[in-house]
């Protein structure tokens, strides 16, 4: 069971409260596909991913980014019960989607960079440290049912 | 990992925009790394880790200078950082995993100070550059 201090919960809530899930999700997924192009392997049916411009403008990327970050929001609502909350999602990523959990870590770090760009100096070192812990815990929960 | 011509242009562009803030960014990178990844502090048991630490500022300046040097000699990073590579292999022996952590925190610093500079393309180029630097610094480990 991961312990979250009151300060950490506050840092998570205050950032998340100001996040536009659709925009942030789209940007995070687009950057994942651009910065780590091998991650495109999971999205053969997404159409045109041939350039950064194509990726950023791709409506399937935007929609999927929103879906992913919305799910992340569920994690934030269930910080004390993450493994259970993500149990089915974990099985899905292993059994059906066949996603290497390393990709969860990559996306988590990209999300942190997107948040830093958005919040600038308000994304303090303490804030970053809390969110690094959060993305790490989320990645771990998503990988938990792998076999 | 090969840096394309546009990667090189992007990286040089970033460092030119950062300019004299590089030292400050170096210090903040370390501060963020020590905070988010406490295990990295094990390499600096003698450091004052408090806010505004002169040692962190001093070391941040060194780290930044090395990155600037690599960017200025981007066609031959291995040559430019050869002595530093020897130092890391023979004396410092920082586990290779930590260079990724430092690189990530540097990206966070650039993003938080210059969001407009860190377009997705520049982000990709800078990430590749930081990986290349890490690879050079650990190249002689064994």
From TrEMBL, chain A:
One function term, GO molecular function aspect: haptoglobin binding
Q: Which gene encodes it?
A: Hbrh
Write the protein's name.
Answer: Hemoglobin subunit beta
CDD domains (alphabetical)? Hb-beta-like
* Keyword set, alphabetical order: Heme, Iron, Metal-binding, Oxygen transport, Transport
- Pfam families, alphabetically? Globin
Annotated Globin domain ranges read 3-147
Gene Ontology cellular component annotations, sorted alphabetically: blood microparticle; haptoglobin-hemoglobin complex; hemoglobin complex
What family does this belong to? Answer: Belongs to the globin family.
Biological role stated in the UniProt entry: Involved in oxygen transport from the lung to the various peripheral tissues.
Q: How does it assemble?
A: Heterotetramer of two alpha chains and two beta chains.
**Example GO BP:** hydrogen peroxide catabolic process
Q: Which SUPFAM superfamilies match?
A: Globin-like
Q: Which residues cross the membrane?
A: none
Automatic annotation (TrEMBL), chain B:
**InterPro entries in UniProt:** Globin, Globin-like_sf, Globin/Proto, Hemoglobin_a-typ, Hemoglobin_oxygen_transport, Hemoglobin_pi
Q: Which GO molecular function annotations are given, in alphabetical order?
A: haptoglobin binding; heme binding; iron ion binding; organic acid binding; oxygen binding; oxygen carrier activity; peroxidase activity
Residue limits of the Globin domain? Answer: 2-142
GO terms for CC? Answer: blood microparticle; haptoglobin-hemoglobin complex; hemoglobin complex
An example GO BP is: hydrogen peroxide catabolic process
Q: Which terms are listed as keywords in the entry? A: Heme, Iron, Metal-binding, Oxygen transport, Transport
Q: Output the SUPFAM superfamilies linked to this UniProt entry.
A: Globin-like (SSF46458)
Protein family according to the UniProt entry: Belongs to the globin family.
Functional summary from the UniProt entry: Involved in oxygen transport from the lung to the various peripheral tissues.
Q: Can you name this protein?
A: HBA protein
């Amino acid at each position: 069971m991961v312990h979250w201090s009151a300060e950490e919960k506050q840092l998570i809530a205050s950032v998340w409260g100001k996040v536009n899930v659709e925009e942030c999700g789209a940007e995070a997924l687009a950057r994942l596909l651009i910065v780590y192009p091998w991650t495109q392997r999971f999205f053969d049916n997404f159409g045109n991913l041939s350039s950064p411009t194509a990726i950023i403008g791709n409506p399937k990327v935007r929609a999927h980014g929103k879906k992913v970050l919305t799910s992340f929001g569920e994690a934030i609502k269930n910080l004390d019960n993450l493994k259970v909350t993500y149990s089915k999602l974990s099985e899905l990523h292993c059994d059906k989607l066949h996603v290497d959990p390393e990709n969860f870590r990559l996306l988590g770090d990209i999300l942190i960079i997107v948040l830093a760009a958005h919040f600038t100096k308000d994304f303090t070192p303490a804030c970053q440290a809390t969110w690094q812990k959060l993305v790490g815990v989320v990645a771990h929960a998503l990988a938990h049912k792998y076999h | 990992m090969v840096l394309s011509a546009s990667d090189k242009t992007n990286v040089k562009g970033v460092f030119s925009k950062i300019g004299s803030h590089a030292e400050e960014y170096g210090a903040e990178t370390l501060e963020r790394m020590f905070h988010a990844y406490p295990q990295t502090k094990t390499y600096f048991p003698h450091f004052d880790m408090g806010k505004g630490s002169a040692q962190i500022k001093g070391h941040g300046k060194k780290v930044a200078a090395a990155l600037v040097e690599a960017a200025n000699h981007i066609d031959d990073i291995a040559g430019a950082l050869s002595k530093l590579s020897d130092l890391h292999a023979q004396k410092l022996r920082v586990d290779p995993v930590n260079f990724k952590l430092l690189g990530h925190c540097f990206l966070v610093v650039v993003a938080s100070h210059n969001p407009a500079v860190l377009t997705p393309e520049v982000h990709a180029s800078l990430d590749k550059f930081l990986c290349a630097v890490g690879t050079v610094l650990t190249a002689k480990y064994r």
